[in-house]
Structure formats: structure tokens, C-alpha cells
Amino acid sequence: MADERSVDVDEPTNPAPAAESARRPAVGVARLTPVQEAYSAYARHFLNCDACMDRSSPSCETAPLLWRDYQEQVEAVRAKLLGR
Ligand SMILES: [Zn+2]
User: Fold this and answer.
1) Is residue 21 one of the residues assigned to a domain?
2) Is residue 27 part of a domain?
3) Residue range of the domain that includes 68
4) How far is the CA of 74 from the centre of ligand 1 (A)?
5) What is the pLDDT of residues 6-51, one digit of tens each?
6) What's the 7 CA to ligand 1 centre distance in angstroms?
7) Does this model's pTM top 0.70?
8) Phi and psi at residue 23, in whole multiples of 5°?
9) Inside any domain, residue 15
10) Phi/psi class of residue 70: alpha, beta or left (left: φ > 0; alpha: ψ in -120 to 50)?
């Protein structure tokens, strides 16, 4: 379980080629938007992290990084919608 924490931090954003992924059969879940993926990574970490689930202690070092990544994705979408 401890090893999974470091995996989440380095989780890359995989820009799969659109044409290729369109031909791939849907397995499991549909493609998520970057915002959804970022939030999913945060939520997945949170639910599997002893430090995060233990409310009596401050959260771990990984959670804030994942949350910040999520915030950045949200901000990117907002900037795009505002045309900046
Ligand atoms: Zn954590």
C-alpha cells in the first residue's frame, strides 16, 4: 500500500492519439477529461492513503500535490472558456 502513494504522484497525463483511441474498444470506463482524471487521481489516492483517511493527523504530502494538479486543470479549463 505504501508504494502506491508514490505511483500517484508521478502519474503522467497520457495524451493518446485520438484516431487510435477511437478504434480501441471501450474497456471498463470511458475516457475522462483532464479535470476528471486529476480529481480521480486525488480521490483514488485519498481513499487508499492511511494518512489522508486518518482525520486526526494532517494529510500526507501527496494529497496537496494531487489537489493542486486538479486545481490547475480546472483553471486551465476556465481560462480556455474565457478565451485566454
Ligand atoms: Zn495521502
Assistant:
1) no
2) no
3) 33-84
4) 21
5) 445 555 565 555 554 455 555 565 788 999 999 999 999 999 999 9
6) 12
7) no
8) -85, -20
9) no
10) alpha
